[in-house]
């Protein structure tokens, strides 16, 4: 909506302020949505919505893998110590 009507206003910000009042949100919220829409259309550099979702999913996967590695490292150390204790008992 902002991209369609920004020619009717002196600047994009003026269009955002005008439209934000009509749709019932803050101008800053609408400005962020406009910036994201521009990135999705290739008009502005930066990650698209799909890329942001993929990054978020990959970050979640990395976090889970790090947790799993930490659990495996602790389990390995525990069982290695148990094996050492078992070998030296008479």
Produce a short descriptive summary:
With 90 residues, the chain is mostly helical. The protein has helices at 2-5, 12-23, 27-41, 49-87. It folds into two domains: 1-46, Winged helix-like DNA-binding domain superfamily/Winged helix DNA-binding domain (Arc Repressor Mutant, subunit A, Orthogonal Bundle); 47-90.
Structure characterization notes:
It is a single chain. This protein is mainly alpha-helical. It has two domains: 1-46, Winged helix-like DNA-binding domain superfamily/Winged helix DNA-binding domain (Arc Repressor Mutant, subunit A); 47-90. Helices cover 78% and strands 0% of the residues. It is built from four helices and no strands.
Protein traits:
90 residues; mainly alpha; Arc Repressor Mutant, subunit A; 2 domains; 4 helices; 0% strand
What is the topology?
Elements: H1 2-5, H2 12-23, H3 27-41, H4 49-87
Would you identify the CATH H-level superfamily of the largest domain?
Winged helix-like DNA-binding domain superfamily/Winged helix DNA-binding domain
| Span of the ends, CA to CA | 81 Å
Task: Summarize the biggest pleated sheet.
Answer: none
Gross geometry: rod-shaped
Q: Output the number of helix runs.
A: 4
Query: Which CATH top level class of the largest domain fits?
Result: Mainly Alpha
Any idea what the radius of gyration is?
27 Å
